[in-house]
Amino acid sequence: MITTAKRLDTVEEYYFSSKLREVRQLQSEGKPIINMGIGSPDLSPSKDVVEAVQLAMLDENAHGYQSYQGLPELRKSMADFYENNYNVALNPNTEILPLMGSKEGIMHISLAFLNEGDQVLIPNPGYPTYTSVTNLVGAVPVYYDLKEENNWEPDFESLEKLDLTKVKIMWIGYPHMPTGARGSIALFEKLVAFAKKHQILLINDNPYSFVLNDNPMSLLQVEGAKDVALELNSLSKTFNMAGWRVGMVLGNAEAIDAILKVKSNMDSGMFFGIQKGAIAALKSDKSWFDAMNEIYKKRRVLTEQLAEKLNCKVYKEGVGLFVWAKLPEGITSAEKFIDKILHEKHLFIAPGTIFGSNGEGYIRFALCVKEEKVQEAIDRFN
């Protein structure tokens, strides 16, 4: 047996990868599982997006290798999207790099900037991939607390007390996953000032800003942010294109150039048809967001009712694709709580612990299930 690389000792299989095997096994046994655990949109892209891909198949350039930087038209569409929706001006040639999903951007950024032993500020709770990628590249996670009493925002006094001399990168994500905390421009201004003071690369992971959120924001709206910051964004949630794997990293031109050095050695460009579909999606007007949010509003109302059926207290201020809820008094293990519900009521919910130790005592519901299925879940507790 060939031994695996030592870096694999630093990570475990992604929670949803292993847990969904258990869910599929229960389904194969005939159990009527309702999956509210994972944020994979069940809605479809727009008709214009699908037609753009179909038409692209007839283009003589459709099936060859594509540019590592994506089609110029795609980068221009991303720049226009940021101008129109966030009032952020970006140079499509130097400040935007299309990605095969924003998740790969986490790896590319880490490979481009982190040496072994460098430290990375990671939110607790937060997206687990920040930790796993940090470990894979030999860097050291340093967790900073996000707590409900502080509206799931960083405590800057606590941050300033840390030894930050080895910190190279700080991950943030607002609207926040998993809690749905909105963040604010004032918060972004504090974060940019903090990053400048300590010479840290600040990265905002921003895939949820159009879901149930009447005030989409970008870190790059802050004056001077591009001196120290990047932003990741994605078409997965906003345009129901999760499986298409289309994302982008935007901001500091020198950082984008460094990331391109990594990316150009990792893939051979995004499929032409997908790029054409992405261009069509990015041209969507306000009616698209309004239509999606009408659906998500109805789902959220029902999901909050479901959480309350479980005697959980919903974080009502949350936006985005999830409902975050506090477990009932006396319940000490989120994982035991959701496992009991999975096996007794055939409902899968994500335990807050998979997002960090500050997620203990909480659970997360995804709004990726049709209303009638959420109502069915509610009925199972009557």
Automatic annotation (TrEMBL):
Keywords for this protein: Aminotransferase, Transferase
A Pfam family the protein falls into: Aminotran_1_2
GO molecular function, one term: transaminase activity
Cofactor(s) needed: pyridoxal 5'-phosphate
InterPro entries: Aminotransferase_I/II_large, LL-DAP_aminotransferase, NHTrfase_class1_PyrdxlP-BS, PyrdxlP-dep_Trfase, PyrdxlP-dep_Trfase_major, PyrdxlP-dep_Trfase_small
Keyword Transferase: yes
Domain Aminotransferase class I/classII large stretches: 32-381
EC number: 2.6.1.-
Family: Belongs to the class-I pyridoxal-phosphate-dependent aminotransferase family.
Xref: PANTHER family: AMINO ACID AMINOTRANSFERASE (PTHR42832), L-GLUTAMINE--4-(METHYLSULFANYL)-2-OXOBUTANOATE AMINOTRANSFERASE (PTHR42832:SF3)
Protein name: Aminotransferase
Species for this entry: Flavobacterium degerlachei
